Amino acid sequence: MGAIADALQACRERIESTCAEAGRGTGCARLIAVSKTFPAADIRAAHAAGQTAFGESYVQEAQEKLDALADLALEWHFIGPIQSNKTRPIASRFDWVHGIEREKIARRLAEQRPPELPPLNVCVQVNVSGEASKHGVAPEQAVALARAVAALPRLRARGFMAIPEATGDPARQRARFRLLAELLAEARRAGLDLDTLSMGMSDDLEAAILEGATMVRVGGAIFGARRYTTKEAET
Predict the structure, then answer these.
(1) Cα angle 95-37-66, degrees, rounded to a multiple of 5
(2) How far, in Å, CA of 132 to CA of 125, rounded?
(3) Would you give the DSSP letter of residue 227?
(4) Is 76 helix (H, G, I), strand (E, B) or coil?
(5) How far apart are CA 145 and CA 147, in angstroms?
(6) Domain-embedded: residue 154
(7) Mean pLDDT of 146-175
(8) What is the mean pLDDT of residues 76-87?
(9) How many structural domains are present in the chain?
(10) Counting Cβ atoms within 10 Å, is residue 47 exposed (0-12), middle (13-18) or buried (19+)?
């Protein structure tokens, strides 16, 4: 096995071990391999090791990879904030969007989703840490935005996503993820048909799964250090 295959196996073992610890059963959390900044060849290696769902954050880079990997049956997730001028390629080429924080963006995605494709799966991003530097709506606005998204055609509201502040304190990690889980429960009580908690990354996926994550987004633990910075990616 190669380095990426070995890393994937180690990550899957972490996930399954934590699912068992949480008493949630095998496969309780899907692994999204965050491949932004990494070449198409790395995605091919991960696919050869059984990984099919990948996350990207930069539209131009992602489109080049989608073209290069069109021969593979892959599921593409767009993760992070979306600029208004980037909604069309996202609406037409991705299967999931993690990061809706404005109704305006959701409306543009709905309008631009091709009718021959299935509805675009979307998650509302919530700023569970309250940090000014973080994207996402405030927790008290999350259910209302999810309700607005759920009413739009060509979209399927699936749940909530969060990227809490980095901390090595497991109790603090779990508290942030618990808040997101509570919002999902609140939305369900309000009648919304939601099923997804996209939370947890390389350093905190265990805490996320223990609090109910159904998707974990892992990049570094699979592919290694990023190839370039966000600023470089946008130039």
Answers:
(1) 35
(2) 14
(3) S
(4) strand
(5) 5
(6) yes
(7) 95
(8) 95
(9) 1
(10) middle
